Amino acid sequence: MNPAKIVLQGLVVGRGAAAVAGPFDAVIAAGEALVVTGPNGAGKSTLLRTLAGLLPPLAGAIRLEGLAGVDGEPAERLADVAHYVGHRHGMKSQISVGDNLSFWGRYLGGAATGRSERSRQNAERDRNTPALSGSAALSPSEALAAVGLPGIDSIPFGYLSAGQQRRASLARLIVAHRPVWILDEPTSALDTASQTRFADLVAGHLGSGGIAIAATHHPLGLEGAKTLHIDARDPRSAGPGTPDAPLDEADLASAEGWL
Ligand SMILES: Nc1ncnc2c1ncn2[C@@H]1O[C@H](COP(=O)(O)OP(=O)(O)OP(=O)(O)O)[C@@H](O)[C@H]1O
Question: How much distance in Å is there from the Cα of 231 to the middle of ligand 1?
Fold first, then answer.
């Protein structure tokens, strides 16, 4: 059987009607990572937000093969089978870290409550193995322990340091199982030990047949990852779309959401 895969075909991404980057052609199969690099403003975040379904593609297609949603049916949209962790944490400052993660677990179809026996067994194993497999949905407490933040469930998210906030937001990846992780600068603000722990987490996800797509300015420690480099674009160059057209701020705001 062919492995599950994501196929980008002539994908052009942009903001409003203005093309920012592309066309991109790539195949990312189960167990593979794609690391997206490029200078500031090249379009890395725009590409990732498009893959996450937060911005519409300007041209081309994102095709899925063999990826199933939580209902077991073949997925048609990448957003339905993907975690997206962007520059913003997607966590409410005023409520506790545990409640934030419980929300994400429920919203993304995880097992924050009522875990399966398999999940419980995996969690038991992972207590002794910080490099988690990404395949099990963990409780918020277990996910926090896995990112090196044990026992902080009841603390408001806003009380955490910058690096702790990043780690807590990355814990979202393991309170619900999704086969594709889309990560924008995931290791920003992380200390060296946390970067290593995160690399182990992603390696576990890939090892269990997951896919990771990450934009970064720093090495992620992912051996054998595919790379996609986006060159700086001459702002005067004309691409697909209408670069000089004014952005529709209302459309943009609704597409941007809060992530
Ligand atoms: N909300 C927005 N509205 C209009 N243009 C935007 C918006 N966000 C980004 N852009 C423009 O899109 C282009 C690509 O930005 P993007 O954030 O994708 O770059 P990046 O490669 O992720 O950069 P960085 O390394 O700084 O994070 C830039 O020219 C930027 O000015």
Answer: 13
Q: Which CATH number fits domain 5-256: 3.40.309.10, 3.40.50.300, 3.30.1380.20, 2.40.50.140?
A: 3.40.50.300
Establish whether the linkage from the previous residue to 23 is cis, with ω within 30° of 0: yes
Interface predicted TM-score (ipTM): 0.95
> Which residue's CA is the nearest one to ligand 1's atom 30?
41
Report residue 62 CA to chain centroid gap.
16
Pairing state of beta strands 59-65 and 5-15? Answer: antiparallel
Residue 73 is predicted with a pLDDT of 82
Q: Does ligand 1 have an atom closer than 6 angstroms to the CB of 55?
A: no
Between helices 97-107 and 162-170, what is the axis angle to 10°? 30
Per-residue pLDDT reduced to its tens digit, 73-108: 889 899 999 999 998 899 999 999 999 999 999 988
Which ligand 1 atom is nearest residue 39's CA?
25
- Cα 185 to middle of ligand 1, angstroms: 14
Domain range annotation of the chain: 5-256
Bridge-based pairing state of the strands 180-184 and 211-215? parallel
Percent of the chain with pLDDT over 70: 79
Q: How confident is the model at residue 70 (pLDDT cuts 50, 70, 90)?
A: confident
Distance 228 CA to ligand 1 centre (A): 17
What is d(CA 13, CA 20) in angstroms, rounded to the nearest whole number? 6
Does 123 have pLDDT greater than 50?
no
Ligand 1 pocket test: pick from 15, 87, 244 the residue with the most ligand atoms within 8 Å of its Cβ.
15
CA of 53 to the centre of ligand 1 (A): 16
